[in-house]
Amino acid sequence: MGEKILIAGNDAIAEAGIRAGCRSYFGYPITPQNELLEYMSAHMPKAGGAFVQAESEIGAIYMCYGASAAGGRTMTSSSSPGISLKLEGISYLAGCDLPCVIVNVARGGPGLGNIAPAQGDYFQATKGGGHGDYRMVVLAPATIPEATELTMLAFDLADKYWTPVLVLVDGVLGQMMEPVEFCEPVDPTTLPLKPWALTGAQGRPRNIVTSFFLDPHELSEINLKRQDRYRRIEAQEVRYEEFETGDATIVIAAYGTVARIAKTTVKLARNEGIKLGLLRPITLWPFPYAPFRALSNRVKTILTVEMSAGQMVEDVRLAVAERAETPFYGELGGIVPTPRGILREVRKYVSYDAENGQSF
Amino acid sequence: MEKSVILAGFGGQGVILAGKVLAQAGMDHGLEVTWFPSYGPEMRGGTANCTVVLSDEPVASPLADDPTALIAMNLPSLDKFESTVASGGTIVLNSSLIERPVMRADVKVVSIPMNEMAAKVGSALAINMVALGAYIKATEVTPLATVKTAMAQMLEKDGKGKFIPTNEQALEEGYNAA
User: Fold this and answer.
1) Residues of chain B scoring pLDDT < 70
2) What confidence category does residue A305 fall into, taking pLDDT thresholds of 50, 70 and 90?
3) Which of B6, B4, B10, B5 is nearest to B98 (CA)?
């Protein structure tokens, strides 16, 4: 750890990428992600890496495909509409088992939408988006220090499981500033070798990176191996945070920006005697089904709050089944819920015992 | 202790930078801080604002629906945010551009002619530091010296070191007037 600096989320994620040993970045401008690209343009060359502002988002993701196939740590970033454009390439990366880190600084949608913060890309991130039977690890930081840690982790997970990894933030986390102490940089020359990489076939059989397999049995076998890896990810990589859930009777489910806002709601609620907690998924895929299942056996209500019309709530309901009530509160179009706005929703599900002055 | 302030004004009045200086000073003073700007399609002459939260424990929400202070550099900012300020909070307003009084009786009001005061130190652009100086005096969130250092370091980093003396004067002018 080094010196503490005040830094914006977009800049911090870019710096974390360079520190993770990423030596190639390909991107295309879009608000509210532009500063990430700008930071890379200034700092990647100094780190001895390649920065390319591609001709389009599609160009950028396929440049990542090439850099990854050649064995390097590589990264691209965009915001919602730009991520839609990258989906074909992400499916190809997954189909070739290529590691790659993709950052989505999400904004209001669908379509061109607006540049305000939103969480409407949860389905796209966690349920495929692109075609075919693939999964992508999705990491959802709630603070800028955590965004730097998870960006560095994203590169490790991508290399370990041969998969694209998405870091999903939104306009708030991209634009806001917060103090960060960065982890020590990784020396890219010390990273484990990738025996499958296209590094020149001198003295070894040639490697082929492809997602194209005409023989159904061959494609099936490759898919089954990939699915085994996905099961290992589900078993080993689930991450989440529980906050004040110990004695809670009602718990908020939220991720990213909304989760940190909801933490203030928890404090406000506890000041007025409401036993409110928070369960924050850090990995959106693999989703923390088990902690939600466990919680649903002892709380009355799990209120999902998102800047969407209700996307993650489907996974919460899958985990909770009918064991607790699972209402939803969402804001759309780039409106950010406030601590007291969430508290007003929470109160709807709290019963008051006037005699004892207790809430439950 | 958690303090939150909305700095609001016309685009070009420097509220975004003033917020950054405050956040940096808060961090240098050992506080946990967040800085969040309105980042819509703003331009010079439009409206701009940012929210700074300073706390002695990790900051949860970077947005405040009832900030403990408001710095209003123009009338639209006061109109928009006056009602949101927490009871017992502080409103620092620019009387050069705001002719109406604050309607609230439950907040502390610091009303100073920021445009004239900035002109007095020799730069209309230093209005944001006048405002910040007044806010620091009224709320005592950090020592003025820490704010001066943070401001100087930020201007130096941006290659604007020659403006440091004027901005220091502006901070003092605001601080002494509050």
Assistant:
1) 40-45
2) very high
3) B10
ipTM: 0.94
Q: What is the Cα A155 distance to its own chain's centre? A: 13
Please state which of the ranges A94-98, A161-165, B42-46 shows the lowest mean pLDDT: B42-46
* Sign of the CA dihedral running A291, A180, A153, A254: positive
> Cα–Cα distance between A80 and A333 in angstroms, integer?
13
Q: Which CATH number fits domain B2-177: 3.40.50.280, 3.40.50.300, 3.40.920.10, 3.30.930.10?
A: 3.40.920.10
pLDDT surpassing 90 at residue A360 = no
HEC assignment per residue over A170-218: EHHHHHCEEEEECCCCCCHHHCCCCCCCCCCCCCCCCCCCCCCCCCHHH
Mean pLDDT, range A147-162, rounded to an integer: 98
Instruction: Determine the pLDDT at residue A249.
Output: 96
Q: What is the pLDDT of residue B154?
A: 94
pLDDT at residue A1 greater than cutoff 60: no
Strand order in the sheet with A276-281: A240-243, A276-281, A250-253, A301-306, A328-330
Cβ-based neighbour number of residue A18 at 10 Å? 25
Distance in angstroms (rounded) separating the CA atoms of residues A60 and A67: 11
Provide the mean pLDDT of chain A.
96
B19, closest residue in chain A (CA to CA): A177
A144-161 and A9-19 are packed helices; what angle lies between their axes, rounded to 10 degrees?
A: 40
**Burial class of residue A136 in the structure, from the number of CB atoms within 10 Å of its CB (0-12 exposed, 13-18 middle, 19+ buried):** buried
Of the candidates A276, A298, A285, which has an alpha carbon nearest to the alpha carbon of residue A239? A285
Residue A335 burial class via C-beta count within 10 angstroms: exposed 0-12, middle 13-18, buried 19 and up: middle
> Cβ of A107 under 8 Å from any chain B Cβ?
no
Q: With an 8 Å Cβ cutoff, is A172 touching chain B?
A: yes
Chain A residue numbers with beta carbons less than 8 Å from the beta carbon of B36 are: 172, 175-177
Strand partners, A305: A329
Q: Does A268 touch chain B (CB under 8 A)?
A: no
pLDDT at A225: 98
For helices A312-320 and A289-296, the axis angle rounded to 10 degrees is 50
Alpha helices (runs of H) in B35-126, residue ranges in sequence order: 75-81, 114-120
Q: Please count the residues of chain B.
A: 178
Nearest by Cα to A351 from A360, A341, A343, A340: A360
Q: What does each C-alpha distance from B164 to A5, A175, B156, B157, B172 come to in angstroms? A: 21, 26, 8, 11, 12
CB contact at 8 A, B60 and B2:
no
- Domains in chain A, ordered, with CATH? 4-236 (3.40.50.970), 240-359 (3.40.50.920)
CB-CB contact of B124 with B118 (8 Å) = yes
Verify cis geometry, omega within 30 degrees of 0, for the bond prior to B67. Answer: no
**Which residues in chain B are closer than 8 Å to A341, comparing Cβ atoms?**
65
How do strand A24-27 and strand A50-53 relate by DSSP bridges?
A: parallel
